[in-house]
UniProtKB/TrEMBL annotation:
This is Asp-tRNA(Asn)/Glu-tRNA(Gln) amidotransferase GatCAB subunit A. It comes from the Bacteria. Keywords: Transferase. Residues 24-444 form the Amidase domain. One of its GO terms (molecular function) is transferase activity. InterPro entries: Amidase, Amidase_CS, Amidase_dom, AS_sf. The keyword Transferase applies.
Length: 463
């Protein structure tokens, strides 16, 4: 096994045991980037020399018995919405091609304090406004979309071109590409992780979270990201939580809600079969399955778009007036559409969200987590615009991907996706676990138990 194939937890343990050096690990990941980038294009910017200098510094510290933190010497990628001092943050857009931050974003500073080594900035669908990340290719097939908007981060982790990465999630942008590339993605509770220094898409829906190879890795990264930040108005005042996971696979007493509506509607049969099999495995591990009915489903899409579109347009108002030609066509059209939305529609979406949050709390009160598919179909072919379901319903690829992930953004609850198999074409399938506010520890426990009951997953072939 090459160092780039190691999970974060295994790599960190090997570095602390002095069985692996940070230099060896970072060099291995940088070598993997050189191998995969020509055909995957996960990165906007690779800072190889800076990463090597940081790795040598980490190695000297380790040799002296000093470890900066739990992520000491671990190479990471950051979505190109996340400011890093001295490194371009372009949002994968010509609009911000020259942007260089004077200071680190909160999350970049937290990860550096924990010892992580930045190797580069990963591609996003322009300004995170899309679900495909068109410039990046799926790690399991170059003819397939990466998913978005954190496509570069998910592909880098899946291919071994980063040991972990950060993404952002406004309507599924961590979970969708993670599911499509066979890795783990966590959208935390709204306000748990600071967004200071992170380019916004929709401030009332935006989240920052980890993309990793395993659930245990996600727990380690999340622990480094929490803490109140007064520079983010939505940042929560909550005490530090313990996300440590043990080897106990027993889920006795855990109540898992299985949706009887919405989440299994218009879903590919192979995905439904894989997810239901994974839910059955959770039952075998001791969990109790309870049928639940998802509330207000007819309003989900309207609420998501009713909030996101006008907020995104407001954020881009100045540059849309000065340099509209620098935006990609798909993003510019959405921003222009936002200018046509009446204020009353936005206010109605806000009110509907409040009602949905209350209805969701009432529904979820009988369970600890909800288990469902992450996306209704595996990675679409590049350039594919629509999905046609068995009943003749036609849906855009982007709408299909956001459909099952948006409820967790609207309600602000945490959601974890993890791989649960592959379809006949060899493309990954993801299961989504949705929890209560600040219920990340429960999601991680359940996901970890499932993961430990399965065979270890290799890195993607990046073919």
């Amino acid at each position: 096994m090459q160092p780039y194939e190691l999970s974060l937890a295994s790599a960190a343990q090997s570095i602390r045991a002095r069985q692996l050096s940070s230099v060896e690990l970072v060099d291995s990941v940088l070598g993997r980037i050189e191998e995969t980038e020509p055909h995957l294009q996960a990165y906007v910017t690779v800072i190889a020399e800076r990463a090597r200098l940081a790795a040598h510094k980490a190695e000297r510290a380790a040799a002296a018995g000093h470890f900066t933190g739990p992520l000491h010497g671990i190479p990471m990628g950051l979505k190109d919405l996340i400011d890093t001092e001295g490194v371009a943050t372009t949002a994968s857009s010509q609009v911000r091609a020259d942007h260089r931050a004077d200071t680190d974003s909160t999350v970049a500073a937290q990860l550096a304090e924990a010892g992580a080594v930045l190797v580069g900035k990963t591609h996003t669908h322009e300004f995170a406004y899309g679900l495909t990340t068109p410039q990046t290719r799926n790690a399991w097939g170059q003819d397939r979309v990466a998913g978005g908007s954190s496509g570069g981060s998910a592909v880098a982790v899946a291919a071994g071109a980063a040991t972990f990465a950060l993404g952002t999630d406004t309507g599924g942008s961590i979970r969708v590409p993670s599911a499509l590339n066979g890795v783990v993605g966590l959208k935390p509770t709204y306000g748990l992780v600071s967004r200071h220094g992170v380019t916004s898409l929709s401030w009332s829906l935006d989240h920052v979270g980890p993309i990793t190879r395993t659930v245990e890795d996600a727990s380690l990264v999340l622990a480094a990201l929490t803490g109140h930040d007064p520079r983010d108005p939505a940042s929560l005042h909550v005490p530090p939580a313990d996300y440590r996971l043990d080897k106990d696979q027993d889920l006795t007493g855990l109540r898992i809600g299985v949706p009887g509506n919405y989440y299994f509607d218009h879903v590919d049969p192979e995905i439904e079969a894989a997810v239901r099999q994974a839910i059955a495995r959770l039952k075998d591990l001791g969990a109790l399955l309870i049928d639940v009915e998802i509330p207000m489903t007819r309003y989900i899409q309207a609420i998501q778009w009713g909030l996101m579109v006008p907020e995104a347009t407001a954020y881009h108002e100045r540059t849309m007036r000065s340099v509209p030609e620098l935006y990609a066509d798909d993003v510019r059209i959405l921003l222009e559409a936002g200018e046509l939305m009446p204020a009353g529609d936005y206010l109605r979406a806000q009110r509907a969200r409040t009602l949905m949050q209350q209805a969701w709390r009432d529904m979820a009160g009988a369970v600890d987590i909800i288990a469902a598919p992450t996306v209704p179909s595996t990675a679409a072919k590049a350039g594919q615009e629509t999905v046609t379901w068995s009943d003749g319903t036609v849906e855009s690829v982007s709408d299909s991907y956001v459909r099952l992930s948006a409820p967790a953004n609207i309600t602000g609850v945490p959601s974890l996706t993890l791989p649960v198999g592959h379809d006949r074409a060899g493309l990954p399938i993801g299961m989504q676990l949705i929890g209560h506010p600040l219920g990340e520890a429960t999601l991680l426990r359940a996901g970890h138990a499932y993961e430990r009951s399965e065979a270890p997953r290799p890195v993607a072939p990046a073919r």
